[in-house]
Structure formats: structure tokens, C-alpha cells
């Protein structure tokens, strides 16, 4: 008996479940905006800030202390993140508190982090026979 493979639809052709257009249908101007969004995420300090904000809102001073940077440095990062809609700010007295504007950013970050972790595991597994021989 011959088992024929079950046809699998091309995942690129599937509609986005959230109802947003797929990247392949985006105009060039939108791709520029998407690239700017990813540029903001392409900096370790900003990723650290995102991780800290997972636990709830924080002010610049708290973020600076936890990150080990100056408040001015953290403020510059937060300004870029705010411009791209990653964080929202709210003034209270003399402090400004930041929170995640769109929690779906964590789905994106977790997807990328999972991919990187799998790559590292594969890389370690491929080096393991050489390490075992060296010992």
C-alpha cells in the first residue's frame, strides 16, 4: 500500500489570522516602517527594557538602576521605543512611568528567542563529538 503525502498548503499563501496583511503584500513605504520597528528591537538594552517591563510598569530611574545605565541613556532608548509604539508613557507627579503598549511584542520576541535557542542547541550538538574526543 502506497501512502501518498498529505498536501500541505503553502504557509506564505495562508491569510494572517489576525486579519493584517502579509508582508508580501506590503507597499515599500510600509516595509520601511517595519524595518524601523525591527531596528528598535535590534539593540540589547532595549530588549532588556522590554523584559523588565514584562513585570509591570516602571519609571526611568528604576529602569536605569536595573539596567546599569544612566537615566539619560534609558530615556533615549524609551523615546525610540515610544516612537515605534512599543511602550506607552504616563506622567505621575514628577515621574514618568512606562509600560508595554502592545503585549503582542512578547510573542514576537519569544518566537525569535526560541529560534535562537534551537540554533544554539543544534550548534552545541554538532560540536559535542569533538569536545568529547578532546577530553
Content of β-strand: 5-15%
Query: What characteristic shape results from the CA principal axes?
Result: globular
Instruction: Look at the structure and name the CATH superfamily of the largest domain.
Output: Winged helix-like DNA-binding domain superfamily/Winged helix DNA-binding domain
Instruction: Identify low-pLDDT runs.
Output: 1-15
Question: Order of SSEs, N→C?
Answer: HHEHHEEH
How many helices? 5
End-to-end Cα distance, whole Å, is 49 Å
Assembly type of the chains comes to single chain
Q: How helical, in percent, are the residues?
A: 55-70%
Describe it.
The protein is mainly alpha-helical. It has two domains: 28-101, Arc Repressor Mutant, subunit A; 104-135. 56% of the residues lie in helices and 10% in strands. The protein contains five helices and three strands. It has helices at residues 28-41, 44-53, 60-67, 71-83, 105-134; strands at residues 58-59, 87-92, 95-100. Strands 1-3-2 form a three-stranded antiparallel β-sheet. Strand 2 (87-92) and strand 3 (95-100) form a beta hairpin. Helix 3 packs across helix 4 (71-83). The longest helix has 30 residues, at 105-134. The chain is globular and about 60 Å long. Mean pLDDT is 84; it is low at 1-15.
Note the topology:
Elements: H1 28-41, H2 44-53, E1 58-59, H3 60-67, H4 71-83, E2 87-92, E3 95-100, H5 105-134
Antiparallel strand pairs: 1-3, 2-3
Helix pairs in contact: 3-4
Amino acid at each position: 500500500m502506497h501512502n501518498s503525502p498529505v498536501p500541505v498548503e503553502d504557509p506564505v499563501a495562508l491569510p494572517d489570522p489576525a486579519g493584517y496583511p502579509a508582508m508580501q503584500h506590503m507597499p515599500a513605504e510600509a516595509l520601511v516602517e517595519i524595518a524601523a520597528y525591527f531596528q528598535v528591537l535590534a539593540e540589547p538594552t532595549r530588549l532588556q527594557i522590554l523584559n523588565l517591563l514584562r513585570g509591570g510598569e516602571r519609571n526611568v530611574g528604576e529602569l536605569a538602576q536595573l539596567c546599569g545605565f544612566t537615566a539619560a541613556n534609558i530615556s533615549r532608548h524609551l523615546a525610540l521605543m515610544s516612537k515605534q509604539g512599543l511602550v506607552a508613557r504616563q506622567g505621575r507627579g514628577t515621574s514618568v512611568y512606562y509600560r508595554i503598549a502592545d503585549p503582542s511584542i512578547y510573542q514576537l520576541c519569544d518566537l525569535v528567542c526560541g529560534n535562537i535557542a534551537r540554533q544554539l542547541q543544534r550548534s552545541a550538538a554538532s560540536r559535542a563529538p569533538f569536545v568529547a574526543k578532546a577530553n
